[in-house]
Structure formats: C-alpha cells, structure tokens
Amino acid sequence: MNLKNGVIRDLRELTESEMSETEFLRSVENNMIPMQQFFTYYKCAIMEIETKFRVLNEQFSINGESNPIEFIQSRIKSYGSIFRKIITKHIPRNIEAIENNISDIAGIRVVCSFVQDIYRLADCFLQQDDITLIEKKDYIQNPKPNGYRSLHLIVAVPIFLENEKRLVKAEVQLRTIAMDFWASLEHKLRYKKDLSPFKLDLLADEMKKCADQSAEWDRRMQEIKNIVESD
C-alpha cells in the first residue's frame, strides 16, 4: 500500500489485521507533523549516543591505544515494525504510549574488534552522568539458544531542544566483528519463507555450530591480543 500516493485498496477487501494496519498508517499520515517531531527526537538521541562513542574511540587513540570501534550503525524503526510491536505488546495506539512502552525505536550498533573492548566501552559509556541505564542484557556471557551473542543496553539520553530537555530511550548493541557477521547472516536466513521444517531444523543446528565456532575465534583472538600487549 502506497499511502504517499493515496493508493489504498477498498477497505472491504482487507482482512481484520490489514484493516488495523491500514488504519494505523492512515492515522500516522493524518498526524504527520507530530509524528515527524516524534521521530526527530529519536534521530537526535542517535546523534548524541554516536558522538559519545566516537569521542571515546578518539580518546583511546590519543592515549596510544588501538581504536576499539570498527564501525557504528544506527536505525530508526519503521512504521510497520512499530505497528507489529504495538499489536504484540497490546500497546495503545498513541504517541505517548508508544514512547513509554517501546524502548528500541532508536537503535545503535557498535561493532568492536575484541570482546574485552565491548565491556570497556560499555563501562565508559555508562559512567557518563547524563546516561541512564534502564536495562542490560548480556548475551555474550549468556547466549541465546540459537547462538546469538551481543551486549544490549537500553538507555535514556537527554536531548536539548529549543525550549526543553527530553529524555529519549534507545537500544545500544555492542558486538565483535564475528558476532555481527553471524547475526547478519542468521537474520537473512531466518527470514526465508520457503524452507521446509527439515531444512529449518538443519539450518538452526548449523547456525548454532557456527555461533560456537565464532565464539571460539573471539576467545582465541582476545588471547593473542593479551599476549601481544603483555610484552
């Protein structure tokens, strides 16, 4: 459905779930200015958080250390993703409820060279007095059953507007290169719709083995780094 061009199928042809999503998207379109402002808050939060990590990366470099960050990625959830979360979590369909109940509208992924870098960066980031930690999930020490590994932080960061200061929630994920490589491929494979149950089980088993192997690779690379730095 292309709402920008005003092309919407006859509502009588839509299923109940499609009807709900159509109504949600139409409501978004009808309230575009407050929605644009809403998403601007999250864009600003991403800029604040990215800057903090880039400053930390430069600080390590100034101190004569190698830069721990390989790259940073960010994203804002799409309307469709927000709608699906509203349905799953039974959230009222208004901006205030969405803001209060969805913590990962703004997402920042920080990809590091080594596992030790993840925890050091996270500690430095969370020690900053304008960052409020809401929730921490360590999937490195406690991987998900499928092998997924990453450190997740739900934080609130202040953004300074013309006439106010707002606290905005965001999710920060910290991973190594190996973790990010595995997660990216797993995401692509998981969303294939035409695999048989047998192939899905086989895929899950193979991906778990790959996750274990990448974890071993991270462990060994960290050991090598420790040996190099001990001289």
Describe this protein's structure:
This protein has a domain of 148 residues: Beta Polymerase, domain 2 (2-Layer Sandwich). The relative contact order is 0.11. Strand 4 and strand 5 form a beta hairpin. Strands 1-2-5-4-3 form a five-stranded mixed sheet. The longest helix has 34 residues. With 231 residues, the chain is an alpha+beta fold.
Protein traits:
single chain, 231 residues, alpha+beta, Beta Polymerase, domain 2, 5-stranded mixed beta sheet, 5 strands, 19% strand
Radius of gyration, in Å, reads 21 Å
Structural class per helix/strand content? alpha+beta
Unreliable spans are 1-16
Instruction: Provide the spatial order of strands within the biggest beta sheet.
Output: 1-2-5-4-3
CATH topology of the domain at 31-178: Beta Polymerase, domain 2
Order of SSEs: HHEHHEHEEEHH
CATH homologous superfamily classification of the domain at 31-178: Beta Polymerase, domain 2
Identify the CATH architecture of the domain at 31-178: 2-Layer Sandwich
Rounded average pLDDT: 86
Ends: how far apart?
62 Å
Write down the CATH class of the domain at 31-178: Alpha Beta
What can be said about the biggest beta sheet? 5 strands, mixed
Number of helical stretches of at least 4 residues: 7
Strand content: 15-25%
Helix content: 40-55%
Instruction: Indicate the overall shape.
Output: flat
Tally of strands: 5
